[in-house]
Amino acid sequence: MNQHYNKLGFKIPQNYFKESKDQIINSSNTKENSSTIKNILSIYKYPIAAIFIVSLISYNFLNFKTESFEYDQNSPIIYSIISEEDISEEDILEYFTNNLTINEIKIYK
Amino acid sequence: MKEGILLKLLKNPTSKNKGFSYLVDLYHEKIYWMIRKMVLSHDSANDVLQNTYIRIFKGIENFKEKSKLSTWIYRIAYNESIRFLTNESKLKKVELDSNDDNYSRKLYADEYFDAENLSLKFHQILSDLSLRQRNIFNMKYFDELKFSEISKITDMNINTIKSIYYSVEKIIKKEIDESTL
Asked: Is-contact B113 A9, C-beta < 8 A?
């Protein structure tokens, strides 16, 4: 601060510079501590995520069972396939009538 | 402490805090006065000063060393002050080339202003200047920065800065001479 500053007539509270310096340095120390925790977390977040994904995949893999397909052996089509007989049109019609729901179409006037 | 050593301390995560303490020790008063001359009131200067330090602390890793560390710090302080003035004026961008109509009001409202005759005359002259003229004059006359540094801080051409400074200096001399006659 040079001698010209006297012309400005600016004043400051007593001990302002010392107190504000201490305050700023203390707050930077606190920030640094919290950022250290963040840094540690940022280092370990990928290995943690990888372990989680691997364990999830392993768990699913171990519990994976090939689903057994249950079918009605009395159904004419299934029976025909199993016994390698020809499938007649009647069988197909019967299969569809038993297994498909036909939507009603209403036409409003 | 030399800037190079200070920078090494600041850029090393283990010594960053220590480096920051040295930085505050070295530049605290200079930054404060630079901001104070721009925003005028002590409380506002204190707020802007804290924001400036936050930006310095967060941004030091990205400092590319294209300029001196002090110039980089002053530039942050300058930009923070402009940002504060912009928010204060509720305008999208503060007009650097227009006069600050609230200059005297802000000055008198501040309890940390000593309204002596010379101060009043000086501020009267400064209040007639545009914000750009005033900033350039303040940086050269009070902060004794080099024209090249002011150019980097304000992002303006060095010759423009020189011509603004000398024209302002002429105006001030003339005004003070007339008032003392």
From this structure: yes
